[in-house]
Specification:
- The complex is a heterotrimer of chains A (392), B (166) and C (597).
- Chain A is α+β, with helices and mostly antiparallel strands and 392 residues long.
- Chain A has 14 helices and eight strands.
- Helix content of chain A is 43%, strand content 13%.
- The model of chain A has no long low-confidence stretch (mean pLDDT 90).
- Chain B is mainly α and 166 residues long.
- Chain B is built from six helices and no strands.
- The N and C termini of chain B lie far apart (38 Å).
- Chain C has 22 helices and 23 strands.
- The chains are: A alpha+beta (392), B mainly alpha (166), C alpha/beta (597).
- The interface between B and C is medium-sized, with 22 and 39 residues.
Chain lengths: 392, 166, 597
């Protein structure tokens, strides 16, 4: 809710393609660059805002600051050599890349992964989801100056990273899920330590709920703000909590279960308001759902069994011609990997479709119009975008 | 081929170290000359073997001669030792094989081995029959020399003959 | 907006007096047990195979020579140097390390003002984490390369003892591809092979299904690939990198597989034609692998080659020593036929020394090559060996090959523990089965079983065929009664090596045994029949401990005479092939030098 209504008759008309013809020399408008270095931006991406008064009339996103050329790099590396680099495509939640890359390779190579490896993979993905949501909560509150939430969630995220360290051998870039299975089983006493960490997460979430979600300032800034019309979901490819907050119960884990999700009990978390507050709340509840899923996995997973299937010699592993597209539900929405093989030892084409590809560019440009400049940061964060996965 | 004189019988009546060493040296010289002569008769591809045997015997000649010249043994070499006459016969029933017209490397080595064996046993028997003292020690020493030589020849024998394992 | 929404945030103040959660000393925080930290390398175990260099996705590893590390058989002498500016700590290098020497500690802090310090060779450049036991090691049950060899299918013992049919079936295409997939292409085998066959290349040809290319690669270094693919002593497999933590690659069987896949008629096309005639001629004495390999090379170089063979058929020990069930005669005939197809004139039933003299050869040819092998058997000459019923293995094997009537013993004892002993034992066992319906064969050897010079597979197959193997027994006498052999008397061997490791057996006379037999076969060693040289030539030549003195290229002390193969270097097929190549090259060079003068 804006504090006063601006005179929108001054605004330029929108062209059919969504752009505006803005006469900058008229003095009515101001161009403001938000990013690529800006506290309100989640990663290196910039939005070129044209502001009239303090309301945005046009926003043009600019990406490419994080282009590292992964897809081309992978065309020059053998299948096993691609495995260590895919996790770097999405920095805050790397495991999804490892899993989807491994899954597409396994499908085209005709390999089946042992059951215990599937459970460990699911465990890692859910732990990664918890970490991702914790970072989001910190960012969302921080966009409104509520800095304490970020301090708390970063701390408890660090505890989760400790768990990752003892399970996979690294904190951020785990390089643990590879075509054929996973690298190792759970270390001694891991389940107990993880349970302790989960309890710490729940305690912190309770505090966050009190401080952030039952907070008049936060509610005033987010309820009714940043509304996404559910009619936009299909044409703009909106998935994940962004869609679920608008009442659309889309969750790949439920719709097309992969790994062991068909053996876990859960319902997708939804809301109806489709505004910033709803999206935040959906993510908070999804985080608690993930905690519950991790507990289910620890209870149900087999303690013994192979963790890796027999691979051919990875030094000259050739995969027959084929193409496949696999998707999964990451914390931000639907994540997809498209792999094309041509019978040689290297992938012919890998295309990574992160949810931020649509959320951060097309959807943002659509939503940003008529948003108060002070809400831009909060809006961007509420879409939960990670720029690294936009441009790989 | 001259039959080798029975060393035992020649030596058992000697009573001084000098006499024993001089006779031992004579035996080595006889062997060395025998091998040196044989070397000219065998074909070139196995001549190395016979020449090596001659060289070994020459080394013994030089060793024993050096001992004879040693100043510190000078006094002890002429000590007469009382030895009771013994009528135990040492039956020398082991024959060295006849080398024949055209001995091959295996025959030559078998001959050399047998010669060392006989010499070693003879010195050993002489040592057993002698009271502890310088003479006894000398016989032991000579027996050991022959034994060492025999061991080296055994290794060479197996190297050449048992070259199988294809 | 409820009042709760105004007051609730203040609940956060309950943490006001908490202790801070930040770690007091983050610098010295110890990482988890599995943490992938800085590299360690056990330099003694590392063989410098370079598989870590191959798999590194960012080119962070370079195999470089290290002072103090020698290049020896089975160790390239190179060690990995890692560039920490490129390393991403994925530990794939640790995963594929063929010996398991490369590992990671869990240390992760390293500050240095010299940027070049971060190019380091673990295990050589001493670091504080060298002894750290915590860190990343290849986990149990996790492997990126297959460790198990594809078994070679063999005919069952009960079936194969009845005949001389080939025992090993040879790999099918599927089996060969699976086995060929295991190769990590390190190349240690190439250096170890006496004739330096391009092993990783022809294994890759199998993976690609390009058998023509595979055969071309084989013939580049070894015109006896069909033979070696069956009977080579495979020193390559002994140093194979994958053999350290798994089974070595079945390089010999893969070589055979290539030769099996190319139809016989295509060989000539792939092998090529002889070069344009040079006008030079070479006489080769002995149509064995050394002589015929030299013939192959010399014919391709364009020289006229005549091979003189004293026996009825060419092949030397390949035909007359190795039994048919290991190396079928038609395979050998085909292999020799390819060489003859280059225009090499092989004249059998021609004995040098009697039919033609060495002087004739010296006069009629520009160079003479002596590759007469080791065709005389040695004897222990223990008492009783003069009796009828005592044979030398090489003589019997020759007779069996010729198809001559061989006296088949009811009970027999073989003296010897090498491949020749196995060959004669198994051949006679087959004849026994055919004639008497049962096998009664004993093999005795001085060595203990783990020191037998025979191939481990030979010993196993021998035992499977019902032959009794008694190790550590030394023959003392052949028992003869009324002119007939009745048995072999042996003593136990208490030790076989002296204190510096030389072969010098010692016996225990109290442990005596008589093995009943009506035939005793000696397979203790072999020697060359150099009588063909004649007295004058023997005097003229220089000798080296019983064998002709040759230089590195196989040339004797006489400029027109070369010698090589078993006769000069000891028994081994692939060494003979390598000798053949060296001598042919030397001869061609000698011809060129004369031209130039």
């Amino acid at each position: 809710m804006a504090l006063f209504e601006p005179d929108r008759s001054q605004y330029p008309d929108k062209n059919p393609d969504g752009t505006c013809d803005i006469d900058l020399t008229s003095g009515k408008y101001l161009k403001v660059w938000q990013g690529p270095n800006h506290p309100g931006i989640t990663g290196n991406m910039s939005v070129e805002l044209t502001v009239c008064g303090d309301e945005v009339v046009e926003g043009i996103t600019h990406v490419g600051y994080l282009h590292r050329g992964f897809e081309k790099l992978m065309e020059r590396r053998s299948f096993i050599q691609c495995f260590p680099i895919v996790c770097r495509i999405c920095v805050p939640e790397p495991d999804f890349n490892e899993y989807l890359y491994a899954a597409t390779v396994e499908e085209l190579a005709g390999i089946k992964v042992p059951e215990r490896a599937e459970w460990i993979r699911t465990l890692i993905l859910e732990m990664g989801r918890i970490n991702s949501y914790l970072m989001y909560l910190g960012g969302q509150a921080g966009a409104f100056g509520l800095g304490i939430v970020g301090q708390w969630t970063t701390y408890v995220r660090d505890l989760m990273l400790d768990r990752f360290e003892e399970l996979t051998g690294a904190r951020i870039y785990h390089m643990f899920i590879l075509p054929g299975g996973v690298r190792d089983g759970l270390p001694e006493g891991f389940k107990e330590r993880l349970e302790e960490t989960l309890q710490e997460v729940e305690r912190t979430l309770k505090d966050v709920h009190e401080v952030m979600f039952q907070n008049a300032v936060f509610k005033k800034r987010t309820i009714g703000v940043g509304y996404i019309d559910p009619a936009l979901f299909e044409p703009f490819g909106v998935t994940g909590p962004n869609a679920r907050a608008g009442g659309v119960a889309k969750d790949v884990r439920k719709d097309q279960p992969y790994l062991v999700y068909d053996q876990l009990e859960f319902e997708p978390v939804t809301d109806t308001a489709s505004d910033m507050f709803a999206r935040s709340d959906v993510r908070r509840r999804d985080l608690l759902l993930s905690v519950d899923l991790v507990r289910q996995i620890l209870r149900k997973m087999p303690d013994e069994g192979p963790i890796m299937t027999k691979l051919p010699n990875v030094l000259h592993w050739k995969i027959p011609r084929g193409e496949t597209y696999l998707r999964g539900e990451c914390s931000r929405g639907e994540y997809g990997y498209y792999l094309v093989t041509d019978g040689s030892g290297k992938p012919r084409r890998v295309n990574v479709r992160g949810p931020s590809y649509t959320h951060a560019m097309a959807l943002l440009e659509r939503l940003i119009v008529n948003v108060n400049i002070s809400d831009v940061a909060g809006l961007m964060v509420s879409l939960h975008t990670y720029p690294p996965e936009i441009e790989r | 081929m001259p039959h080798r004189p029975d060393g035992y019988h020649q030596m058992k009546d000697l009573t001084s170290l000098r006499e024993v060493l001089e006779l031992a040296t004579k035996f080595e010289i006889t062997a060395r000359d025998f091998y040196t002569d044989l070397a000219t008769k065998v074909s070139k591809n196995m001549r190395y073997l016979v020449e090596e045997l001659a060289t070994e015997e020459q080394e013994h000649v030089e060793l024993f001669s050096a001992m004879l010249r040693r100043k510190d043994l000078a006094g002890t070499l002429d000590i007469k030792v009382e030895r009771p006459a013994s009528d135990r016969k040492f039956s020398d029933c082991v024959h060295a094989p006849d080398l024949g017209e055209n001995p091959d490397d295996q025959t030559v080595l078998q001959y050399a081995l047998k010669r060392e064996q006989i010499a070693m046993e003879q010195y050993r028997t002489l040592a057993e029959e002698t009271e502890p003292g310088p003479l006894h020690d000398l016989f032991q020493f000579l027996a050991n020399e022959e034994a060492e030589h025999k061991n080296e020849l055994e290794v060479l024998y197996y190297e050449i003959v048992h070259s199988g394992g294809v | 907006m409820a009042i709760n929404d105004v007051l609730s945030p203040f609940r956060g103040w309950k943490h006001l007096f908490n202790d801070p959660v930040s770690i007091k000393d983050p610098i010295n925080r110890e990482a988890a047990d599995r943490y992938r930290g800085f590299h360690q390398n056990e330099i003694q175990d590392c063989i410098g195979c370079g598989t870590c260099e191959d798999i590194c996705q960012n080119g962070a590893i370079d195999m470089l020579p290290v002072e103090g590390v020698e290049t020896v058989e089975g160790d390239s002498g190179l060690r990995p140097r890692i560039d920490y500016g490129r390393c991403c700590w994925c530990a794939l290098c640790v995963d594929v390390c063929t010996t398991g020497s490369l590992t990671m500690s869990n240390l992760y802090k390293w500050a240095d003002s010299d940027g070049d310090a971060f190019l380091f060779t673990p295990g050589v450049d001493a670091k504080e984490w060298d002894g750290e036991v915590r860190g990343y090691r290849r986990p149990e049950g996790y492997s990126l390369t297959p460790h198990e060899r594809v078994e070679m299918r063999e005919v069952e013992p009960e079936v194969r003892i009845e005949n001389f049919e080939e025992i090993a079936a040879g790999y099918s295409i599927e089996e060969a591809i699976i086995e060929a997939d295991r190769c990590v292409e390190c190349g240690l085998c190439v250096a170890t092979c006496p004739t330096h066959m391009a092993v990783p290349d022809y294994i890759a040809a199998i993976r690609d299904g390009d058998y023509d290319e595979g055969l071309r690669i084989l013939y580049d270094t070894n015109p006896f690939s069909q033979v070696c693919g069956r009977v080579c002593t495979h020193k390559c497999e002994d140093v194979c990198a994958t053999g350290h933590t798994g089974d070595p690659i079945a390089i010999r069987w893969l070589k055979r597989h290539i030769t099996d896949q190319v139809p016989n008629e295509r060989y000539a096309e792939i092998v090529g034609k002889p070069g344009p005639a040079t006008g030079k001629s070479v006489a080769i004495i002995g149509a064995g692998p050394a002589g015929l390999t030299a013939a192959f090379d010399l014919a391709k170089a364009g020289h006229k080659v005549v091979v003189f063979e004293s026996r009825k058929h060419p092949g030397g020990m390949l035909r007359y020593g190795i039994p048919e069930y290991r190396l079928p005669y038609d395979v050998l005939d085909h292999e020799i036929g390819v060489i003859a197809g280059l225009g090499v004139d092989i004249r059998c039933d021609t004995r040098i020394g009697t039919d033609i003299s060495m002087d004739d050869l010296k006069a009629d040819y520009d160079a003479v090559l002596l590759t007469i092998g080791l065709h005389l058997g040695r004897s222990t000459r223990i008492p009783g060996t003069e009796a009828k019923g005592v044979f030398k293995a090489v003589d019997l094997l020759r007779e069996i090959t010729n198809g001559d009537p061989v006296r088949v013993p009811k009970q027999a004892v073989v003296i010897g523990g090498g491949n020749v002993a196995m060959d004669i034992a198994r051949s006679l066992a087959r004849l026994q089965k055919q004639k008497y319906g049962k096998v009664d064969m004993t093999v005795t050897a001085l060595e203990t079983l783990d020191h037998f010079l025979a191939d481990a597979d030979e010993i196993r197959e021998c035992g499977e065929e019902g032959i009794n193997i008694l190790d550590a027994r030394g023959p003392q006498e052949v028992m003869v009664s009324r002119g007939r052999v009745t048995g072999l008397r042996t003593w136990a061997v208490t030790s076989i090596f002296d204190d510096i490791g030389r072969f010098a057996p010692h016996y225990n006379e109290d442990d005596e045994c008589v093995h009943p037999a009506d035939m005793v076969i000696e397979a203790i060693g072999q020697m060359a029949d150099v009588s063909l040289l004649g007295e004058d030539l023997t005097e003229e030549l220089e000798w080296n401990r019983g064998r002709m003195l040759i230089d590195k290229a196989g040339r004797t002390s006489l400029p027109w005479l070369w010698a090589g193969g078993d006769a000069v270097a000891g028994p081994d097929v692939v060494h003979a092939v390598a000798d053949g190549h060296r001598m042919a090259e030397s001869i061609t060079e000698a011809f060129a030098t004369v031209e130039g003068e």
